[in-house]
Amino acid sequence: MSAPLLRQALATLVRDKRDSAFTLPSGAERSIRRHVAARWGAWIATVAVLGAAGAAGASVGMDVLSADEPAPTPDALAVPVVAHVPIDGGPQYEIRWGEYVCGDPAPTPQPDASEQRLSLDLEHHGASNLATVALTWGAPEEPIAGRSEPVVGIGAVELLAVRDGVVVGTIITQDATLGWQQHGLTRTAGGPDVLDAEEFYCITLDEISDSYLYHEQLLEPGTYEVYAAVRVFATPESVALFQSLARTDFLVIDERAKQKGVVYTPGSRGCRAFQSQYVTVRSCLPEAIPTATLDEEEGIVTLLYDASALPQEFDVTLVSEPVEMVIE
Predict the structure, then answer these.
(1) How far is CA 69 from CA 117, 148, 156, 178, 248, in A?
(2) CB neighbours (10 Å) of residue 15?
């Protein structure tokens, strides 16, 4: 999309959104579609995986294995739509480090989401005490005419040590990933991790500082079950953020980076302080994205995105079948 077109779309947003209603009037959205669709003839570019490396980052990254991307087809027309993004993020972003903490009951395995063609597998290499987590997206056997494959948001990939039916330790093997776009191929993401007694920890959230605390958890000798768990989702928010930030230098959105007492609105010193760090927060998005607008009263950022990359909304947590781990 050209810069003049972005400015034109932004002007339409500002002109049509005269009040602070949570959603734009239907006429405004139709107006935006007309303005953008009239000149949006190029395809949305294939974008690489953007890893959101958190302050506490994982020790092992996500490896992506794929063949060359095929060229887009004329059937996959871009569909410009408006997304309304909560300033603090939707529910998919509220639990940064996964769904489970120490003391929780053992999770119920759910390794497959067949409708989304996603599966999660944990393989334990006993001799070396290594584990490999694979999150796999299966391509359809035949291309589906007129449809783009989804942009999939990925939460933190987590290993859970369970004993006597209770989670007693965790390892974060991969931080949250902003988006993972498929184009008719099968990809597998994973990495080897050491399953040793001193590798596990428990994570708690300090509500005063709004930061995560890591507590070393030396596992006692014995036999454990280990599960892999990850939240995967596709929503207007996740697709809009992925597409918009792919065109900027900002690779990470991290609401925890906010400092108390600092103002974060477009043009503020708080927003400018993030620019050199390649980090931003949702309320600063209009600094980097011409089509983004901020409604402070409603706590909403409005973005344009290509809805062809969201053929189906979903939000699932995958849990692998357990493998046995022996700590001597």
Answers:
(1) 19, 13, 26, 19, 22
(2) 10
Would you call 162 helix, strand, or coil by DSSP? strand
Record the tokens describing residue 189, joined without a space.
């993401």
* Predicted TM-score (pTM) of this structure: 0.73
Per-residue pLDDT averaged across 128-143, rounded? 82
3-state secondary structure 228-295: EEEEEEECHHHHHHHHHHCCCCCCEECHHHCCCCCCCCCCCHHHHHHHCCCEECHHHHHHHCCCCEEE
Instruction: Say which residues have a Cβ less than 8 Å from residue 267's Cβ, sequence separation at least 6.
Output: 287
d(CA 199, CA 129): 12
Distance CA 44, CA 304 (A): 13
The whole-number average pLDDT for the span 10-21 is: 40
b/e sequence 46-84, b meaning 16+ C-beta within 10 Å: ebebbbbbbeeebebebeeeeeeeeebeeebbbbbbbbb
Say what the pLDDT of residue 125 is.
86
Q: Which residue has the tokens 């939000």?
A: 315
pLDDT in tens, 158-199: 999 999 999 999 998 888 888 887 666 677 777 778 888 889
Beta bridge partners of 252: 279
Q: Say if residues 204 and 213 touch (Cβ distance below 8 Å).
A: yes
Residue in the block written with tokens 């493998």:
323
Burial class from Cβ neighbours inside 10 Å (0-12, 13-18, 19+) for residue 13 reads: buried
DSSP SS3 for 52: coil
